Amino acid sequence: xxxxxxxxxxxxxxxxxxxxxxxxxxxxxxxxxxxxxxxxxxxxxxxxxxxxxxxxxxxxxxxxxxxxxxxxxxxxxxxxxxxxxxxxxxxxxxxxxxxxxxxxxxxxxxxxxxxxxxxxxxxxxxxxxxxxxxxxxxxxxxxxxxxxxxxxxxxxxxxxxxxxxxxxxxxxxxxxxxxxxxxxxxxxxxxxxxxxxxxxxxxxxxxxxxxxxxxxxxxxxxxxxxxxxxxxxxxxxxxxxxxxxxxxxxxxxxxxxxxxxxxxxxxxxxxxxxxxxxxxxxxxxxxxxxxxxxxxxxxxxxxxxxxxxxxxxxxxxxxxxxxxxxxxxxxxxxxxxxxxxxxxxxxxxxxxxxxxxxxxxxxxxxxxxxxxxxxxxxxxxxxxxxxxxxxxxxxxxxxxxxxxxxxxxxxxxxxxxxxxxxxxxxxxxxxxxxxxxxxxxxxxxxxxxxxxxxxxxxxxxxxxxxxxxx
Length: 470
Ligand code: BGP
Prior knowledge:
Elements: E1 9-13, H1 16-19, H2 32-40, H3 51-64, E2 69-73, H4 76-79, H5 89-104, E3 108-114, H6 120-123, H7 132-148, E4 154-159, H8 161-169, H9 182-205, E5 211-217, E6 220-223, H10 228-250, H11 256-266, H12 277-286, E7 292-296, E8 300-304, E9 311-313, E10 324-327, E11 331-334, H13 350-363, E12 370-374, H14 393-411, E13 416-422, E14 441-444, E15 449-452, H15 454-467
Parallel strand pairs: 1-2, 1-13, 2-3, 3-4, 4-5, 5-7, 6-8, 7-12, 12-13
Antiparallel strand pairs: 8-11, 9-10, 10-11, 14-15
Helix pairs in contact: 3-5, 7-9, 8-9, 9-10, 9-12, 10-11, 13-14
This protein binds 6-O-phosphono-beta-D-galactopyranose (BGP).
């Protein structure tokens, strides 16, 4: 058995827009994705895995397979269809039923307030680039805390500020599909960190019971070789994607090293970066009050120097070997033939998770605890027939080796309290659609029937073994 403490939380993760479907039901407002997906015409967010109607079955299945914690996000646009104004009673009632169902099945809900789904009205006004969204987010959070603080004790403000900003303004895979806009990417990160901090401070001021954290997508970067310019490109890449946000999260300010590097990357545009004194004060108050950090770790990347034009090709189809990622003045992701990849060109490297945990321990010794809030394998699972269990041994190997990396870090003194596999069930993937499956449970998207995968059975045995330790 993988050595994990008896108290280790074995959970699973979901996100509202990816599982719920029902995107136009019961007064839900539109989000940034609706028009984008309609226009693209590649795939639809409806019915996704129809969690909106089938949550009871999914929560029961989770319970039956040893899961004791579930990451669920609230769709802001179900509560406030336009981001602010009058709350939508049906949305408020829906999430109460979902959280009550979790508790009935002894599952602790970990609730995310923003998981890539800004209401359309706010998106059209600039999304996180518009500082007014920060107050709207705070008002929404205040309402939601009041509505559910009696039953929800674990909160996550924002899911992956960098991945959202990166998708929107660098790779263009997320609406509004802008590319290579480095300034916007940094500005969005900063504004999200301010919004996060305001909500942490509010939660603590009000004295709610429970914990509040922030989830970061953390990719581990390694230099492709020992050439100084590649080592330097890796350092820059890391600051752009990880270090800038980690400073704000744990220290409550940006260190000179981070700001100087961002200045080098943004060059002339740096002057336009809008970071205000009162915002820095807010970060400073929030940092020591943060109860946990969630790490979403999927992959590591190998980097080399790149000074020419930016060019990104997003492999959103699973055609192996098609990804290209080069950002002028930051670095280029290069091929490393020694490391296996998924069909979407994500490097499978559990050591990177271990290194990331160690890095947080070393660089930010004031952290209180870490949770791995997402980790899992995107795979083209094959359904054979009703009788044959879906054999996803590759997913089991992926999860097991990453849990081994966590186990090693814990043994060496890191405080990592839990693991949430991405994902509970197959669902819709933002820029990839439905053929990139991550679930412990297979969904037939035509019939919406659920099938247990081998990984779910393995997860159940692991949960048992952890719980039965003396
Ligand atoms: C994270 C997101 C999830 C999920 C996951 C897998 O960045 O928080 O919502 O989608 O990545 O990514 P993808 O669906 O692109 O494979």
